[in-house]
Write a structure and sequence with these properties.
By secondary structure, the chain is α+β, with helices and mostly antiparallel strands. It has two helices and seven strands, in the order αβββββαββ.
């Protein structure tokens, strides 16, 4: 390894560190879970209340569990059950997307606004 290789490695590590810092600073702890079916909001629930919800998906019912301010898909009907294998999400950076069922689960802050219509 020569000096240029070491400099390149240091530059790459600094860039990766900055990207990780930016992602972690943009991470929002939400207080509401929103469930969409075919782009339509079908469920909005408080994350502080532990409960189980069932929403209808394209291939059947999708069972969603809210527990300890986290949410996961417990049961769903799809060929590979990938959505139910994802586990819990607890922040707004990673939604749960169940493509075969056309269901999207997001954690949002109740004060988040997409826009204002007059």
């Amino acid at each position: 390894m020569n000096k240029n290789d070491i400099k390149l490695i240091i530059v790459i590590l600094v860039i990766v560190g900055i990207l990780i810092l930016i992602i972690n600073l943009n991470k929002k702890e939400g207080d509401t879970v929103e469930v969409y079916y075919k782009d339509d909001l079908v469920l909005s629930a408080d994350l502080s209340i532990n409960n189980t919800y069932t929403v209808e998906g394209l291939l059947g019912n999708v069972v969603i569990e809210v527990k300890d301010k986290k949410v996961r898909v417990v049961k769903e009907n799809s060929p590979k059950n990938i959505c139910s294998k994802e586990g819990y999400i607890s922040d707004s950076t990673k939604p749960l997307i169940c493509l075969p069922n056309k269901v999207v689960i997001k954690i949002v802050q109740s004060s988040d606004m997409d826009g204002v219509v007059y």
